[in-house]
Amino acid sequence: MTPVAIVTGACSGIGLAMSKELIHRGYKVFMGDINPRGGEVVDALTPSSEAAPPPTFVCGNVASFEDQYALFEAAYAFAQYIDVFLANAGVDDREDLLAEPADSAAFTAKPAPYDATTTEINLGAVLQGFKLMVHYSRRAQYDAKAAGLASPPLSRMVVTSSTFGLYPFPTNPVYAATKHATRGLVQSLGRRAQQEANMTLNAILPAFVPTGLAPEGLVAQIRDRGYLTSMETVVKALDLFLSETAGLPDYVQRIEVPAATASDGPLTGECAEVSMTEIYLRGSVPFSNESQRWFSEDPDGIWQNSYQQKRAADKK
């Protein structure tokens, strides 16, 4: 069967590099992008063989649930399953939260509301995408059973986060906040996603990769310092999360405690920091004491059971 993938923010930068890698591997790739000219980029891509299906461009805004739903519907209609979802679309801060007012009149005027574009795309769209991936992973199992077919293999969701999901970033603090949030989402839900929805959930945290997101002139300054992260290394991190085993290749180092992966199967709940030519698997920070470990790991299921009861009561 032809594997099927969805990539958002797919027509430039990291999304385009990942799309090309998946196409090279023989995937049918549904490339979502807000730029209507993205179709020209997709049309120029060549499948891995004459028998491989060409990629499909779907124009839309990931911050719109309806647009993202349409992207998933198109992909699922192709083969009644989705193997890989790369939640890659992202933007930097749309405003400086500490910008000085233009003149003294601003002190007595009503301030403008916060521009939520960054949180809607970098975090909200990832949450919507996760819900959609859970839905279609479960739907694939349901449809296969109804048709008397074998259960589909594990689906994979990989979020493009950032190293600024680990470190402070005073220039783009909202961007950093959203990337911290997606890292927390992955580390919190990775194991549950595998156990309850037949899918893995991981994140790639690239350092500075030269893309169109950066201001003009910044790339050259970072290149002069030798601090650029190569696109090839980012793609190697993707390969780590498409692998069928949890074994780590020699070029990957593990830092801090392991995350959610609990078996020899595919990695889940993991965050791969990609810096220059290096890849580091970053678990959660060390627990300060046993009470914090107990709260986080919930070995007795107290948190889980209590919130299941609360949410059931809220629906009544």
Attribute tags:
single chain, 316 residues, alpha/beta, Rossmann fold, 2 domains, 9 helices, 9 strands, 41% helix, globular, Sc_DH/Rdtase_CS
Describe this structure in words.
The chain folds into two domains: about 5-285, Rossmann fold (3-Layer(aba) Sandwich); about 290-315. The chain has about 325 residues and is of the alpha/beta class. A nine-stranded mixed sheet has the order 3-2-1-4-5-6-8-9-7, sandwiched between helices. Helix content is about 40%, strand content about 15%. The chain is built from nine helices and nine strands. It is globular and about 70 Å long. Helix 2 (about 40-45) links the parallel strand 2 and strand 3.
In short:
The chain is α/β, with parallel strands linked by helices and about 325 residues long.
Helix content: 40-55%
As a whole number of angstroms, the C-alpha radius of gyration is 21 Å
Oligomer: single chain
Q: Beta-strand percentage?
A: 5-15%
Distance from N terminus to C terminus (CA atoms, Å) equals 44 Å
GO cellular component, one term: cytoplasm
Protein name: 15-hydroxyprostaglandin dehydrogenase [NAD+]
Keywords: NADP, Oxidoreductase
Pfam families: adh_short (PF00106)
